[in-house]
């Protein structure tokens, strides 16, 4: 079963038949052909398999996880694929990442959502752990969903990442988080994450070494 679903997920990716001066990679999600421009010189500007896993879940569980008119933030949005799919499924999306990635992120969102979505997604800078209250005030920012794909890897900002999850998450916020396990650091981060949040694995793909989690604040997990 794992291999069949993984084949279906990876089958959503396609490549252009002709090589042009501007390279792109294609995906089929939410009834649309999505064209993503990547930058191979930057980790944040590449589509990783965890993003495909999360997009597949959003599309195939659109009734149980109804995003229409929901307020969604994606952290570490990178190329924007998850944000694009969430937008196509009816959400109002804020796609965030580091300042150097926002130009390409904005390009991909506009290219794939303009005149196709109920709510046009927006792009906003978010450096984990920095100026969180200034840029995302707790009193006025309320997100129904926080989405993240492959934000935990070998980097020195895991404390800041956990702080960002904590700041953005209200009692009724649902976190959807796809994660590829590579190093022991990832396992330790999951343990630390669970000190603040109830965590439920909703999908697991051993052949990809990727797990998809749902989380809410401690004691507030809903069926």
UniProtKB/TrEMBL annotation:
A single GO BP: methylation
Pfam families in the cross-refs: Methyltransf_16
InterPro entries with a match to the protein in the record: Methyltransf_16, SAM-dependent_MTases_sf
Keyword Ligase on entry: no
GO MF annotation: an example: methyltransferase activity
Entry keyword set: Methyltransferase, S-adenosyl-L-methionine, Transferase
Annotated CDD domains: AdoMet_MTases
S-adenosyl-L-methionine listed as a keyword: yes
Protein's UniProt name: MT21E methyltransferase
Species the sequence originates in: Gymnorhina tibicen (Australian magpie)
Taxonomic placement: Eukaryota, Metazoa, Chordata, Craniata, Vertebrata
Gene field: Mettl21e
């Amino acid at each position: 079963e794992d291999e069949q679903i993984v084949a279906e997920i990876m089958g959503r990716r396609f490549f252009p038949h002709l090589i042009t001066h501007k390279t792109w990679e294609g995906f089929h999600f939410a009834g649309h052909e999505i064209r993503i421009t990547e930058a191979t010189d930057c980790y944040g500007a590449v589509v990783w398999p965890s993003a495909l896993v999360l997009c597949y879940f959003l599309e195939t569980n659109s009734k149980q996880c109804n995003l229409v008119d929901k307020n969604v933030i994606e952290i570490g949005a990178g190329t924007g694929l998850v944000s694009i799919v969430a937008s196509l499924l009816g959400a109002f999306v804020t796609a965030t990442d580091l300042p150097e990635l926002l130009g390409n992120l904005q390009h991909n969102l506009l290219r794939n959502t303009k005149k196709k979505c109920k709510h046009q997604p927006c792009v906003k800078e978010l450096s984990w752990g920095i100026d969180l209250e200034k840029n995302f005030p707790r009193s006025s920012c309320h997100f129904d969903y926080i989405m993240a794909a492959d934000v935990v890897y070998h980097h020195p900002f895991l404390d800041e990442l956990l702080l960002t999850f904590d700041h953005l998450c209200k009692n009724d916020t649902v976190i959807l988080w796809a994660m590829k396990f590579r190093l022991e650091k990832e396992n330790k981060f999951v343990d630390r994450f669970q000190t603040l949040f109830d965590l439920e694995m909703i999908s697991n793909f051993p052949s990809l070494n990727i797990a998809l989690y749902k989380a809410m604040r401690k004691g507030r997990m809903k069926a």
